[in-house]
Design a protein that fits this description.
Largest sheet: 7 strands, mixed
Distance between the termini: 21 Å
Oligomer: single chain
Radius of gyration: 16 Å
CATH architecture: 3-Layer(aba) Sandwich
CATH topology: Rossmann fold
Strand content: 15-25%
Order of helices and strands: EHEHEEHHEHEHEH
Shape: globular
Number of domains: 1
């Protein structure tokens, strides 16, 4: 008899300005979907205005749909991605995370696993501080943050992105959005690790 079980979903939530974080999100999602019974729910956040709250269309013209609180509540894990802004996550993503107090009060994310990913223009452009800063609200939510273990060979040989704190990409001065092979391998491996962990925890 064919199983009618609905696949469990992991939320891949990102903000991307020029496309490199979106590229990483795609590879993280690939890794997630390598695990049977797990699928990726890809979402993004709208831009915000420095003067007042910008009014965006409820559905983006292209790319992933905008995230809603129910996406976090319904998913069994979270992959969170942002470009680096002076060693910190981008304001649009932080703005959304700051709106999740109701989920914190419910304890809706407690015990769920999470991973992080980022992109910078330069090799030492604040990737690790960005990833660490992105962990803080997730820890307040009671989530379990996973990194990349050094058993992933590419972590020891990469000359571009890839850290034990999360997947990353270096665009260089020319703004190359395409990931290197090591960056791709690490993003896929991290997505797979998240999915395997989430599946075990949800069982």
């Amino acid at each position: 008899m064919r199983s009618t079980e609905v696949p469990k979903e992991i939320l891949v939530l990102y903000y991307s300005t020029h496309g490199s974080v979106r590229e990483l999100a795609r590879y993280v999602a690939q890794g997630i979907e390598l695990v049977p019974g797990i699928s990726a729910r890809i979402r993004t956040v709208p831009k915000i205005s420095p003067i007042c709250e910008a009014v965006e269309q409820p559905i983006p013209e292209h790319g992933a749909p905008y995230v809603e609180l129910c996406d976090l509540r319904e998913c069994i894990g979270l992959a969170l991605g942002s470009p680096t802004r002076f060693g910190n996550m981008a304001a649009p993503l932080k703005y959304f995370i700051d709106s999740t107090s109701s989920l914190w009060m419910e304890g809706a994310l407690v015990g769920k696993p999470a991973i992080l990913f980022t992109s910078t223009a330069s090799l030492h452009g604040g990737q690790e501080t960005t990833l660490l800063s992105m962990m803080l609200p997730l820890l307040h939510h009671g989530m379990m943050v996973l990194g990349i273990p050094y058993t992933e060979a590419a972590l020891s040989t990469t000359e571009t992105g890839g850290t034990p704190y999360g997947a990353s990409h270096v665009t260089g001065a020319s703004g190359v959005t395409t990931c290197t092979e090591h960056e791709r391998q690490l993003a896929v491996a991290l997505g797979k690790r998240l999915a395997e962990t989430a599946k075990k925890l949800a069982a």
